[in-house]
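Propose amino acids for all 167 sites.
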């Protein structure tokens, strides 16, 4: 029988695997294709990927700090190798957060949220949910851009991860 902690860990393992697999695919594209955006997406492929990874860093920070400094603008011009390394760092930080959650030691709150979102106690579930949703949303936008360019689109769904991505 699978326990809830194992399921949550699988969701975050997929989240990180899918982002790394997407980076692998983007790494083979000419630089000008990374700058392409299509209507209905966040922005260019590289800006969307950077935004996804920057947002993960903010969710990880919010798990520790209920009132972090304002986010500011996402970075631009970040090399794929740097983004890949940051995903590796995030893997360690997500594992630490999930370890704390299992021990009953993860207690997140949101205070003074800039977007007008109400102060929220017991926000750990919200932040974990948002990280998974946000990553899926933006990976899908990048895949839509790849498809619009006629480029190969990687399989990033749960089926692919479960069959071939788990280690």
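Proposal:
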């Amino acid at each position: 029988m699978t326990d809830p902690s194992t399921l949550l860990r699988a969701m975050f393992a997929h989240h990180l695997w899918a982002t790394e697999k997407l980076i692998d695919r983007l790494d083979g594209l000419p630089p000008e294709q990374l700058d392409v955006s299509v209507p209905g997406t966040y922005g260019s492929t590289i800006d969307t990927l950077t935004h996804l990874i920057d947002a993960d860093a903010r969710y990880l920070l919010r798990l520790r700090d209920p009132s972090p400094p304002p986010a500011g603008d996402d970075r631009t011009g970040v090399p794929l190798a740097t983004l890949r390394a940051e995903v590796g760092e995030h893997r360690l930080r997500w594992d630490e957060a999930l370890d704390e959650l299992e021990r009953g030691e993860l207690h997140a709150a949101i205070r003074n949220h800039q977007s007008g979102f109400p102060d929220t106690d017991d926000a750990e579930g919200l932040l974990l949910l948002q990280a998974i949703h946000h990553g899926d949303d933006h990976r899908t936008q990048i895949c839509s851009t790849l498809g619009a360019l006629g480029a190969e689109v990687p399989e990033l769904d749960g089926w692919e991860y479960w069959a071939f991505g788990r280690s």
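The radius of gyration is 16 Å. The chain is about 60% helix and 0% strand.
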